Amino acid sequence: MVRAGIYLHYPPDLNKKEGMPMRLPCQTVGFRFGEASSRTELFQLFALGYDKVASPDYSWDGMTRIDGPLCLFQYTVSGSGQLDIGGSVRTVGPGQAFLVNIPGSHRYYLPEAGSTWEFCFILFRPWGLEKQWEQVCRKLAPVCAIPPDSPLLLVLEDMVRSGLGNQIRDGYTASACVYRFMMELLRFASGSGTRRETWPESVATAAREMELNASRIAGVDQLAEMAGLSKYHFIRLFKRHTGVTPLEFLTKVRMRQAVALLRETGLSVDEVAKEVGYAGSSYFIKVFQKWVGFTPGEFRLHRSMVGMERITFD
């Protein structure tokens, strides 16, 4: 049964209609597909949905449920609920999510009459994803904050919308959805940064400088001074927003430039090294091989590999 629709709010630039909230119906959809009825190679989506509860009768005890084993990710849109794990109670407010295993020693519930809890969630079997889920839970569980511009929320909203719109019609599509969500969850847990347009000016300026003048950057001290920050504060801030350290970002830029020069020019390896910012070829060759998997010479000659004009580093 579909109840009255509610809204999942994102920043204006993330909405399909600028400035307008996304409307989702209150509904839970379960999935039971024949091709995923046993522990096969397919990842198994169990249920997903969007809801707004206002009754203190809303309460789920992880030790009394009979539908496990399951992994649950539940994100609060508005209002709040509570999560009790072994007697330790945490409030799960707007912009926060909790992650639990079912069965498990926990209970999540609406604490009192008069309050509401608006949320979306996904439940899936752990089979085939045990290591990834354990890794995510070590870093995020039981409760974590998720920025409103996080790609993870966009993926979750897209999955819920697809499920409620009857667009997940077989086990293969469901498996792809679970894998996509888990990969985005892993990316978020790894701290791989925020969207570039949300970076603070100091980070954006340093990134632009590296992209435009990689060969002239002497080191992190120079970038920190340019940003007007201490070296260690700059490194922490840069990694928080980009997902990598300034040195890793600079190395990626230099490797992309080196790939282009090796493919498009007749410069020697030593000349390419100097062109992208390395004093000599010896260290450049080591770095290039670490990032690309081949020496600059092997890469240029296409030995035992597919010819590539460009490489994306992550």
Description:
About 40% of the residues lie in helices and about 20% in strands. With about 325 residues, it is an alpha+beta fold. It folds into two domains: about 190 residues, Jelly Rolls (Sandwich); about 110 residues, Orthogonal Bundle (Arc Repressor Mutant, subunit A). Strands 1-2-3-10-5-8-11 form a seven-stranded antiparallel β-sheet. A four-stranded antiparallel β-sheet has the order 4-9-6-7, with no helix packed on it. Strand 6 and strand 7 form a beta hairpin. Helix 1 runs parallel beside helix 3. The longest helix is centred in the middle third of the chain and has 19 residues. The protein is elongated, with a radius of gyration of 24 Å.
Name of the CATH homologous superfamily of the largest domain: Regulatory protein AraC
Q: Briefly, what CATH class of the largest domain?
A: Mainly Beta
Helix amount: 25-40%
- CATH fold assignment of the largest domain: Jelly Rolls
Strand order of the largest sheet: 1-2-3-10-5-8-11
Our count of domains comes out at 2
Average of the residue pLDDT scores: 86
Query: What's the helix count?
Result: 10
Biggest sheet layout: 7 strands, antiparallel
Weakly predicted, low-confidence segments: 1-21
Kindly report how far apart the N and C termini lie: 43 Å
Overall form: elongated
How much of the polypeptide forms β-strand, as a percent range?
15-25%
Tell me the total number of β-strands. 11
C-alpha Rg, in Å?
Answer: 24 Å
Structural class: alpha+beta
What sequence of helices (H) and strands (E) makes up the elements? EEEEEEEEEEHEHHHHHHHHH
